[in-house]
Amino acid sequence: MNQAKRKHQFYLWIFLPFLLVAIAWLQEFIDQLLFAGNWNLPIGPGLPWWRLFTAPFSHADYGHLIANTVVFLPLSWVVLAKGLRDYIAVLTCVIFMEIPIIIFGASASHGMSGFVYGLLGYLMLIGFLERRILTIMISIFCLLFYGGTLYTLIPGLSPVGVSWIGHFSGFIGGLLAAFAVYRE
User: Fold this and answer.
1) Are 65 and 28 in contact (CB under 8 A)?
2) CB neighbour list of residue 126: distance below 8 Å, 6 or more residues apart
C-alpha cells in the first residue's frame, strides 16, 4: 500500500466517527437552542420507519449525548482499525436490528447507544471468531472494560428510562456484523 493511500485511510479513520458524532451534536444543539429539548427523532411503535436513520443522532439531552460520545469514538476507531468494511457492516446491522424496536418496543428509543453496543458486540466476538492473538486480546479487553454495562441488555435490569431493547438489538447487530465479515 502506498503512502498516499495510507494517509487517506488514516484521515478517514479519524474523520468518519467525528462526522457521525458531529451530526448528533448538531441535532442536539439545534434541539436545545430552538426547540427547548423537544425536537427528538426516536424510533418506536407507531412512529415513521425513516426514523431508523434519525434515532441514533437524536438524544434526550447533552448528558445523554456526552455519555454516548465518549464510548462511541474509541470503539469506532478500534473497529475502523480492522477495516472500513467492518465498520460499515456494524452500523448497517445495527440499523437493521432497530426494526424490533419499532415492532416490539414498549416506548420510543433514541441515541447512539445502539451503535455503541453494536461496536461492542462486534469487538467482543470477532477475536474469538478469528482466533488471532491481537483480536482475542481486544475482545477480552472489551469484555473486561465494558462488560459491566451488559446488564442493560436484560429487561428489568436496565435502569428506568434506558431502552434495554435498543441496547440489545444494537448488540445483536454487532454480533451479526462479526459473523458477516468473518473470514477463515
Assistant:
1) yes
2) 82, 86, 135, 138, 139, 178, 181, 182
Q: What is the pTM of this model?
A: 0.91
Report the alpha-carbon distance of residue 99 to residue 94 in Å, rounded.
9
C-alpha cell belonging to residue 14: 479519524
State pLDDT tens for residues 23-64. Answer: 999 999 999 999 988 898 888 888 888 998 999 999 989 999
Q: Which amino acid is it at 55?
A: A
β-partners of residue 109 are 43
Residues 6+ apart with CB under 8 A from 53: 95
Rounded Cα distance, 50 and 28, in Å: 19
159 secondary structure, DSSP code: P
What are the start-end ranges of the H helices in 36-163?
62-82, 84-97, 99-104, 113-130, 133-146
Q: Where do we find the cell 493511500?
A: 5
List, for residues 78-110, the tens digit of each pLDDT value: 999 998 999 999 999 999 999 888 887 777 889
Residue with the three cell numbers 451479526? 176
DSSP-assigned letter for residue 36: T
